[in-house]
Design a protein that fits this description.
373 residues, alpha+beta, Nuclear Transport Factor 2, Chain: A, 6-stranded mixed sheet, two-stranded antiparallel sheet, 11 helices, 46% helix
Length: 373
């Protein structure tokens, strides 16, 4: 027995082996030597695997029958062939099982991948519900050319392209008319909230510019859920609180008439004390003025031939509520006053027109006053 290289796979094999353990080629009774190099080769080979020289074909077997096998040979089964068939069966079974498993995994993977694509497409479709940019619709059409939503998305894209052009034009001149026209043309537009916000800002700016109770009421009626509802309501309440009633106007007029006709016109000290607090914040430019300051103002006008001072409060009187220096709410007043001077010399001017500004407390005390000619 010798160890040689298999004539086929070149792996090591015994010359007595039935088959090559590496490639399974039959070895027993199939070997011959190359006449050139002495290497082993199969009888069926036409070229030596060692030196590459051509080999003479093996003579055909004679017709003489082969000697009958010995009893030992008859009784001893040849194990090579059954083992080889068994190994091949196992290999084919494993291969078939592997292929079947791969086929099942591929089918399952394809199924789940298709489900994933369908879910992704539906999610992308639903996301477009609040999108106004037509470019996103174009991308959807590119991503899903076979989508069941293709026609719907394309129609929405074309409509949005037209709307986008009108929206761009609107931005060049935003006003109530252009916004109303856009909203009428596109009643289902996704930009409706943006239009409402713009109208809200326009109306609020106008209401602030007016700063009247009526303007605040109008804004609240137009925009009950507007961005400036709280501010408008607070300003309206403030205006209501600051609103001067007819009765308050009459009392203020009476206070001013008594102050000018008595405290100044007649230099009445008691009237001056009644009309002002212990100390006025200011009177005709003088700080911390008192009743004596007021009476002296009237006395200064009684020089020479003046025999009387008479005052008439104008009909157009502007009054608003205002916070006084002490923190309490009072009245800011602006009104015209006609002064008539009685003189012994009637040839001299006897009339003057003044404009007065004053702060009057809730107790009808004149806290501050300036007189301008």
């Amino acid at each position: 027995m010798s160890i040689i290289k298999c004539p086929v796979c070149r792996g090591q094999v015994s010359t007595m082996a039935g088959t090559c353990p590496h490639c399974g080629i039959k070895i027993s009774s199939q070997l011959r030597k190359c006449p050139e190099c002495g290497g082993y080769c199969l009888e069926s080979q036409e070229e030596c695997p060692e030196c590459g020289k051509p080999l003479q074909p093996t003579p055909a077997p004679s017709s003489v029958p082969s000697p009958a096998p010995s009893p030992e040979q008859q009784d001893t089964p040849h194990e090579a062939t059954p083992r080889k068939k068994k190994k091949k069966s196992i290999r084919w079974g494993c291969l078939f099982g592997t292929l079947l498993l791969l086929a099942l995994l591929s089918a399952g993977g394809y199924f789940y991948y298709q489900q994933y694509l369908e879910q992704k497409e539906q999610a992308d479709f639903e996301r477009l519900a609040d999108v106004t940019n037509p470019e996103f619709y174009q991308q959807f059409l590119l991503d899903y050319p076979e989508s069941k939503h293709y026609d719907e998305i394309k129609g929405r894209m074309l409509a949005l392209q037209t709307e986008a052009k009108d929206w761009e034009q609107l931005q060049k001149d935003i006003n109530r008319t252009s916004l109303s026209r856009f909203m009428q043309k596109y009643p289902a537009t996704l930009r409706l909230r943006a239009c409402e916000d713009m109208l809200d800002s326009i109306d609020w700016n106008e209401a602030q510019a007016d700063s009247s109770e009526e303007a605040m009421t109008d804004y609240l009626a137009k925009h009950p859920s507007g961005s400036h509802v709280t501010e408008a309501a607070e300003m309206k309440n403030a205006l209501l609180l600051a609103k001067v009633t007819p009765a308050e106007r009459d009392v203020i007029r009476g206070t001013l008439e008594a102050f000018f006709s008595k405290a100044i016109g007649k230099q009445d000290m008691e009237a001056a004390l009644e009309a002002i607090p212990d100390s006025m914040q200011e009177f005709c430019g003088k700080k911390q003025a008192n009743a004596e300051t007021v009476v002296q103002y009237g006395r200064d006008k009684m020089e020479k031939d003046v025999i009387g001072l008479h005052y008439a409060i104008g009909q157009q009187m502007e009054i608003r509520k205002e916070t006084l220096p002490d923190g309490n709410t009072g009245f800011a007043v602006e009104v015209g006053v006609q002064e008539t001077i009685s003189r012994s010399d009637t040839s001299r001017p006897s009339s003057n027109l003044y404009r007065i500004t004053a702060l009057i407390s809730q107790e009808q005390k004149i806290v501050k006053m300036n007189i301008y000619k």
